[in-house]
Design brief:
The structure is a homodimer. By secondary structure, chain A is an alpha/beta fold. Chain A folds into two domains: about 110 residues, Tetrapyrrole methylase, N-terminal domain (Cobalt-precorrin-4 Transmethylase, domain 1, 3-Layer(aba) Sandwich); about 120 residues, 2-Layer Sandwich (Methyltransferase, Cobalt-precorrin-4 Transmethylase, Domain 2). The first copy, chain A, is about 30% helix and about 25% strand. In chain A, the strands form three sheets. In chain A, strands 3-2-4-1-5 form a five-stranded parallel β-sheet, sandwiched between helices. A five-stranded mixed β-sheet of chain A has the order 7-8-11-9-10, sandwiched between helices. The longest helix of chain A has 13 residues. Chains A and B meet through α1, α4, β5, α5 and β6 of A and α1, α4, β5, α5 and β6 of B. Chains A, B: InterPro entries: 4pyrrol_Mease (IPR000878), 4pyrrol_Methylase_sf (IPR035996), 4pyrrole_Mease_sub1 (IPR014777), 4pyrrole_Mease_sub2 (IPR014776), Cbl_synth_CobJ/CibH_dom (IPR006363), Precorrin_MeTrfase (IPR051810). Chains A, B: This is Precorrin-3B C(17)-methyltransferase. Chains A, B: Pfam families: TP_methylase.
Chain lengths: ~250, ~250
């Protein structure tokens, strides 16, 4: 593992939801680098490992730290929640890696919230889907809005990450209002809180009801496509064996 | 596990890319049901287990088989490649489950090709993205076309599943032609073959070049968004730390 940094997706949090590959990389690492909350989620198995962290929003510093530790000859694993390549640190590592060309990067995939949340809720992403983050820290809101509209027009099932935070309390409501301009109020939806951690909570509802739900930064939201149904309190998007009803929402495409 | 069927995502194929949870469920199962190719990918660990299968395209029969075996009191694991809830059997199980209300269903998520392929290629899905299958076995081609257009207009990164098969040799070419009406020829793209199996092959290229690549049913294709770049032969979609260049492709939204 010399002169190579592993960027590791740890999945939703529980060790049993990590892959064998990810566990093996962490076992072999000299130092585990990550956001403090994720490092804490790692259980006893990694208690003795050296751990290093930078605060939230100091992701660039965290990546540099990983390269600097690797330069010292340490085997470094940079840990991300979910999948390292889905809103994770993988791309930033490759960008910063331009300055550390003698150090290789390998991404170890993990279970992202779209997969783990969908499994709790039923099968909401069982056909073509989009993943959209409502966080406008790194993306202009206009771009997020444009993507919500495109997703609705394309009749995609949608997984929404980061639907809310302390500073963005009404963002899910704003997103639902945008979607409601294209989709029916009764569209089948749902959300999952604390996936793969203590206190997992799954709720199915209509799009109109979703608009008024209280969600937080640990919630993943799912919007069905035109053929999605709630069956026995599970949100189900069909594979396409049935003929989906025509939604007529794409007339201007 | 009585009266409960586990619908298990096995990831791309290698045992080390399965989660501990998935392995544990398979360990405890009496019978493993799945498409023959996936059953064969399971290694020695499960050699002694009873295995049952139905041919390709007989997915409905496979689900019924799972319920019938569970009714006999067996602990059943229905196995899908990748994630069971992403083009997998999860939603069909819930639909057929309407006729077997005394049997519970639990979905165990796995690493889907969007995650595992992205990890091989770099970080192509490190911002909002769409997953689209080009298979028109269960979806009208017009719907696929509509989704490709929506994905392009929304400036999503795109993962394309099932880009080709014996009967659909030119489908990736057709998809590229649709995208090229909205995206520049130089758009950063890539594809991965045989992810997590023998003979993994990763290629980066432009959208124009992608149009003429030979791909097969074991290929996953990735189209970057407007800000994606190829860095040291890796396809990188930025998290958004940089201001993305304006693409002006969405004037009619």
């Amino acid at each position: 593992m010399e002169n190579k940094i592993y960027v590791v997706g740890m999945g939703p949090g529980k060790e049993e939801m990590m892959t064998g590959e990810a566990l093996s990389v962490l076992d072999q690492a000299d130092v585990l680098i990550g956001y403090t909350v994720y490092l804490q989620l790692l259980g006893e198995r990694f208690q003795e490992k050296e751990k290093m962290s930078t605060p939230m929003r100091q992701e660039t510093e965290r990546c540099r730290l990983a390269f600097e530790e690797a330069k010292k000859g340490k085997k470094v694993a940079l840990i991300c929640s979910g999948d390292a390549g889905i809103y994770g640190m993988a791309s930033l590592m490759y960008e910063i890696g331009k300055n550390y060309l003698d150090i290789d990067i390998e991404v170890i995939p993990g279970i992202t919230a779209a997969s783990s949340g969908a499994a709790v809720l039923g099968a909401p992403l069982n056909h073509d889907f989009c993943v959209i983050s409502l966080s406008d820290l790194l993306t202009p809101w206009e771009k997020i809005e444009k993507r919500l509209i495109a997703a609705a027009k394309g009749d995609f099932a949608i997984a929404i990450y980061n639907p809310s935070s302390h500073k963005r309390k009404d963002y899910l409501q704003r997103a639902c209002d945008i979607l409601l301009a294209f989709l029916e109020e009764e569209r089948a939806c749902g959300y999952v809180e604390n996936i793969g951690r203590e206190g997992t909570k799954a709720v199915t509802c209509t799009l109109k009801e979703l608009r008024n739900q209280e969600v937080n930064m640990f919630t993943t939201v799912f919007i069905g496509n035109a053929g999605s149904e709630i069956i026995n309190d599970k949100l189900i998007t069909k594979r396409g064996y049935q003929i989906e009803r025509d939604t007529n929402i794409c007339g201007n495409n």
